[in-house]
Amino acid sequence: MSAPTIYEQIGGEPTFRRIVDSFYARVEADPRLRPMFPADLEPGKEHQRLFLMQYFGGPRTYSERRGHPRLRMRHAPFPIGPTERDAWLEHMLAALDEAGVPEPARSVMAEYFRNAAQAMMNQWDPSSP
Q1: pLDDT tens digits, 9-29
Q2: First and final CA of the chain: distance in angstroms?
């Protein structure tokens, strides 16, 4: 018998819905990030929820509907520097907490989000090392 996936450990789709809803509520109120998102947040919420569910061991609905995630390509049009990276990560980690994601799943997910936030950067402050 294989170990349960993160998707299973945290309660499946309802928990991912809570994470994404919490994250997007924070984005909607954040002047650093809101301008980067379209007026209608619902399609993005759906895409993010399906992607995260799949990434953490749930159904492959995201790939069936949208193909390969191509995260860097999908985010390339948006200027993502340290401020945007940090704001995104702050909201995502707060969403994990608000959704009540337990350890050790929370740490695994947080590490993924840290790495993903860094990987999406396409603007750098020339004065920072």
Answers
A1: 999 999 999 999 999 999 999
A2: 47
